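Below is one such protein, fold included:
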Amino acid sequence: MEKVQEIQLQLSIRDEEANEGDSHGYANESNQPNTPQTRKLGLWIRIGFYSFLVLSGQTAATLLGRLYYEKGGKSKWMGSFVQLGGFPILLPYYLFQKMKCKTKNNHNMNTNTLPLQSKKPSMLIVASVYLVLGLIAAVICYLYSVGLMYLPVSTYSIILASQLAFNAFFSFFLNSHKFTPYIINSLVLLTISSVLLVLEPGSQKSSKVSKGKYAIGFVCTVSGSAAYGLSLSLMQFFMNKVLKKESFSVIIDVIVYQSLVATIVVLVGLFASSEWRSLREEMNEFELGKVSYVMTLSWIAITWQVYSIGLLGLMLQVSSVFSNVISVLGLSIVPIMAVFFFHEKMDGIKAMAMVLAIWGFVSYAYQNYLDNPISNS
């Protein structure tokens, strides 16, 4: 009986503290209004920031990746490794988070309050999910490396727009993503955009590779897009259904643990294929010099991590499909940059494919605006 009374007393104290917190909340709300319009404006500011990370990171990483192969790079496994191996630059975040948690715990002890413990998912389940996501990421990076090696960067980027259609398809089953006329219009336009590149008569000549290698690059890029669409849908399902958290810490955890698994897989492939033996020779023969070789690979790794943070941030704020739409917009920017940096030709069919890709992006972005308008006017 004494234990029961003690438990009831603790519950009543917590209820009183909660009521006091609510009253303080209303008082603060009068001083610092938090209207629905203000919250939506904050949402769109975050979306804009994460979109900038996606666009800048993806554009820079893709162009640098093509520069690596253009100036003498030959290793597909090294091209895969730099897409994943930059995750250690995110590790200092855990030190900062640990210091922050220590300060917060000291504050809770001083105020005699204990944080409520939420039920955490099984460690085995979480580890299994990271293992699956890491294996898929390793496959995606290898397929993308092959595609970037054999295709012009403009053709490669526009083909990647098909990943949005695959993402929407998988999200329909995994995340109950709804299809509206604007979304269907977006997917159709992006699909047609990719098909046009198959029919482009001068694509194989401009790629400076044989027909067989061009076909391999095209198939690998489309396959990588399909796997990427599946990966994004699985990530959103994992964060919403398993972790059940929406925070920046979740973003860092997913990037780091998935990249760790994928990096190990890629390193095994690098040594098993014996490509590592030719890396020293490759660096010595790099047209821009040894320092540029190292700097190019380093910046590829860094910019892909910038892209990953933005992508997962958009996934948490909106959805995996919307994050992919912003990624597709970046793919439309890359061909324009390729004309200036690599002097690639922008013929009629390629230009039409790019316009359709941008149109598809605008169609989906407008649907998202209808779902989450800043104001209710």
Q: What stands out?
A: The chain has a mean pLDDT of 78. Residues 112 and 199 are 70 Å apart (CA to CA). Residues 58-99+123-200+210-370 form one domain. The longest helix spans residues 36-70.
